Amino acid sequence: MKFAKKAFTTGLAAIVMSGGLATTTVPARAAGRVDLAKPTFSHPTRITNPLFPARRLDQLLQLGSEDGEKLRFETTRLKTPVAIRWGGKTIDTVVQQFVAYGDGRVAEVAVDYYAQADDGSVWYFGEKVDNYVDGVIHDHSGTWLAGRDGPPGMIMPAHPRVGDVFRPENIPGLVLEVATVTATGLTVAGPRGPVPGAIRVRNLELDGSIEQKIFAPAYGEFQASVAATGESYEAALAIPADSIHCRRPRRLIALDTTAARVLVAAGRHDWRLTDQLVRTLNQTWIAHRHEVRVPTKLSAQFSETLQALRKAVASRKAVTIRQAAVKVGLAAVDLQAQYRSVRATDHARIAWWRHQLQIDRATGDAGEIAGDKAVLTAIRNRLVG
């Protein structure tokens, strides 16, 4: 699951099939299994589980890093349910699109399928994965589908308790993951303030790696870290949980439009105007932060991209400046996401990725051109659902 997928390794566990659900001899982890009973699905798309709100979460943005590389994950609910055949029945699932970026370039695009059982637990029915290298699909590692490849896996119990053990992915020989609830009743620092009712889960992969995750109401997967690889990421913004129902602040709009003007000025080698526009960006950003509380992760992201733009301007290299301006523009779109619909936000992202595509076409980098097109396709796909 997610960005750094772990493949099943034979010989690490003895696999036994029981009642149509896969089990394995993992010492000290079998006693707390809460996913052994076969689930029933009367209203599978009515997902009300607060810790995995796939039906109510329109879009989740997560930011982080791994070994110095910046990570960005966009998870978006798609409009149309997908029916999956399992256990002799057809079950409608809620569909999410997951897009992962490494240092601003596409690394993975996946489509995930979820359904809620009658007891309130949420089950994972599979994913279709495209893994990218240099902008081109490299493989589909991690892809699986309930019914075709094996059973679904429980991704969230109805009422998690410390010691509960379940398997979000449960197809030995293809995908397998063991999750253990290690803490409940946590309060986490959300983008707009404290979020109570969170839980911590310890995920064991069959390659021996361990991932610590926190799930929070209205966010689902809120935070994750893998000590072995240095991977760490956290929710930066969730819609509608962090939505603000008022007009976009004028300074946020100005950040977007000014970054667009930097693109034009740098393209014309008008350094005087470019310098002036970057100063304006800086002043506007300082004034906005003083006036409005900005989610911590988004604030840090915008400040970093603005600093990179100032450094790029000093180089007087048009391509470098324009690349940096696109990153500022995309960060400005993230800042505005609290005030807009997901659809409007994604349309704004498309506009900036088109600028990126124009820049990469001018430099002739085939991998980056292909990657830009892949991102544009992914965003368009989720716009049409």
Task: Describe what you observe in this structure.
- With about 375 residues, this protein is α+β, with helices and mostly antiparallel strands.
- It folds into 2 domains: about 220 residues, YmcC-like fold (Beta Barrel), CATH 2.40.360; about 140 residues, Four Helix Bundle (Hemerythrin (Met), subunit A).
- The chain contains 6 helices and 17 strands.
- It has a 15-stranded antiparallel sheet that branches.
- Helix 1 packs antiparallel against helix 4, helix 2 runs antiparallel to helix 3 and helix 3 runs antiparallel to helix 4.
- It is globular, with a radius of gyration of 22 Å.
- It starts with 14 loop residues before the first strand and ends with a helix.
